[in-house]
Amino acid sequence: MESIIRDRSLAKSGQQKIRWVDHYMPTLNAIGDSLKKEQTFRGKTVVVSVHLEAKTAYLATVLSRAGANVVVTGSNPLSTQDDVAAALVEDGLTVYATYGCTEEDYFMYLHQALDHHPEIIIDDGGDLVGLLHTSRQDALENLLGGTEETTTGVNRLHGLDKAGKLRFPMIAANDSYCKYLFDNRYGTGQSTWDGIMRTTNLTVVGKKVVIGGYGWCGRGCAMRAKGLGAHVIVTEVDPIKAIEAVFDGFEVMPMAAAAKVGDIFVTLTGDKDVIRGEHMKEMKDGVLLANAGHFDVEINKPELEALAVRHFAARHNIEGYELPNGHIINLLADGRLVNLAAGDGHPAEIMDLSFAVQALAAKYILENHGTLENHVYVLPHTIDTEIASIKLKSMGYGIDTLSAEQRNYLNLD
Ligand code: NAI
């Protein structure tokens, strides 16, 4: 089946981007070498539905070199990079993804990917899994299982699992230490600010930054905002996370109060309606609203549109909304995850870990599907430590090893 991408002639730029990240992904490279040697995925079809930029393309390439028939699609209409998609097609992979496609086309691409009846899926946010439980149950035919990249997708999987409706085993790749401790915290922390800064070309220093949600992503984003010189305010719904934020040195208050003082708002909760019309009415003139949570539901855009007397393109990827009081509210990247829709996503060194987890999770499914039930699993801790050991070595760090006496003292055996 023919790929659907924007323009195959963009391949050269995409190949350059993939070569660049390859150099900074030593863990995935080491794992990829052994998968290639074993031809682990020979004859298996793997559908990858992850934000289609260079690091994802490199993961797809690693799986392809390990023998898989890899079919790639995006996981958000605004995060696909057309040149990267073209590079993959040039390398013989099948791709269904275009930047800025309609919601309808986005789902059509997912359908087209599922038409390949995969043995393994790599999902990011749960849209692929959603289809496999509704209109595309025909594509369950060969499916052994899959892996899920992000918190929101894992939450959706747990919903299906609790209801006894999950139709195949899924690995919560997000819940491996080598994923969320680094990707959600340090990856989102850096790339969210990269997206905001390159899109606005404004300062962060001296600004009041409001971070909605102090989970793994929120922590990283708050930490980096502080490092950039911002005054950081956190909003939360969980009293324990709120205490953590206070002890980390941040102000904590409800969004209703934060709305009146903030200059830049970033939502990272996985929840909906974190910033609503009632908050927008209270905001200062010229504020920036950005979301880094998986779906574009954290900032209530329909309420913003309903409140506004007019809206206009303020800058590439920024829409300005004028409220009746004359204040302008600037929405970045249409409320979609700002680090990917207005940037290149997480740094390569971070995705080195996340995609090492994904590659080994796919292998785990292949080798263990016979014993796995239709539930959500986390990879064994030994896989996490294997990945961490390769990464640590590649970074030039050594650590101590426990002696037999120490292991015994710690009751580890
Ligand atoms: P998490 O579960 O660790 O943290 C979410 C936090 O938000 C929790 O502390 C929760 O109490 C809080 N929260 C929930 N509703 C809230 C509300 N209405 N107001 C204030 N706080 C609220 O989740 P994690 O891992 O930090 O992920 C957050 C979101 O970011 C998810 O949608 C996830 O899929 C996404 N994500 C995005 C990435 C990116 O590249 N932009 C990377 C990784 C995750």
Automatic annotation (TrEMBL):
How, per the record, is the cofactor bound? Binds 1 NAD(+) per subunit.
Pfam families under this entry?
A: AdoHcyase, AdoHcyase_NAD
Q: Which UniProt keywords apply?
A: Hydrolase, NAD, One-carbon metabolism
An example Gene Ontology CC term for this record: cytosol
User: Which GO terms of the molecular function aspect are on file?
Assistant: adenosylhomocysteinase activity
Biological processes, Gene Ontology terms: one-carbon metabolic process; S-adenosylmethionine cycle
Q: Where is the S-adenosyl-L-homocysteine hydrolase NAD binding domain?
A: 184-345
Q: Which CDD domains match?
A: SAHH (cd00401)
UniProt EC number: 3.13.2.1
Q: In which pathway does it act?
A: Amino-acid biosynthesis; L-homocysteine biosynthesis; L-homocysteine from S-adenosyl-L-homocysteine: step 1/1
Domain of life from the UniProt record: Bacteria
Question: Is Hydrolase set as a keyword in this record?
Answer: yes
Catalytic activity of the protein: S-adenosyl-L-homocysteine + H2O = L-homocysteine + adenosine
Q: Does the keyword Hydrolase apply?
A: yes
The cross-references to InterPro entries, in alphabetical order and at most eight, read:
Adenosylhomocyst_ase-like_sf, Adenosylhomocysteinase-like, Ado_hCys_hydrolase_NAD-bd, NAD(P)-bd_dom_sf, S-Ado-L-homoCys_hydrolase_CS
Q: Which cofactor does it need?
A: NAD(+)
What does the entry list as the binding residues for NAD(+)?
150-152, 215-220, 236, 292-294, 339, 346
Which NCBIfam families does the UniProt entry name for this protein?
Answer: ahcY, PRK05476.2-3
Its family?
Answer: Belongs to the adenosylhomocysteinase family.
| Protein known as | Adenosylhomocysteinase
**Naturally occurring in which organism (per UniProt):** Megasphaera vaginalis (ex Srinivasan et al. 2021)
Gene name, please? ahcY
